[in-house]
Amino acid sequence: KAEGHLEGEKVENPDTGLYYDEYLRQVIDVLETDKHFREKLQTADIEEIKSGKLSRELDLVSHHVRTRLDELKRQEVARLRMLIKAKMDSVQDTGIDHQALLKQFEHLNHQNPDTFEPKDLDMLIKAVSARQE
């Protein structure tokens, strides 16, 4: 087998070390199933991605893709809620500020836990970019 990858073979990316790495990968995988968005992603430069210009393209993806992204977001919110509950249970402090805990999770809009919107994609991109700087 040659060193190069075969057409259609999935290339495994190394773990980013982000606590939301799995969510990030799933969002990217779903977005890449939309032909229009995949083309925009391939032609976008890093500044277009970081500025949020690419996030606006989310309004043009297929209904199926948006539905899947909504589902992924709900799963991620549920995961984060479990983490918060576990943290609360371990501390047993009744004075915990839930909003302050949620603000730690800057990779999604916790104000809207049900649907994946352009703001969510923008926040995810900005969170990843901030970690890489």
TrEMBL record:
Keyword Phosphoprotein among record annotations: yes
One annotated Gene Ontology cellular component of this protein: endoplasmic reticulum-Golgi intermediate compartment
Keyword Nucleotide-binding: no
Chain ranges of the NUCB1-like N-terminal domain: 7-128
Subcellular location per the Swiss-Prot or TrEMBL entry: Cytoplasm; Golgi apparatus; Membrane; Secreted
Domain of life (superkingdom): Eukaryota
Protein's recorded name: NUCB2 protein
GO molecular function: calcium ion binding
Pfam family, one: NUCB1_N
Key words, A-Z: Cytoplasm, Golgi apparatus, Membrane, Phosphoprotein, Repeat, Secreted, Signal
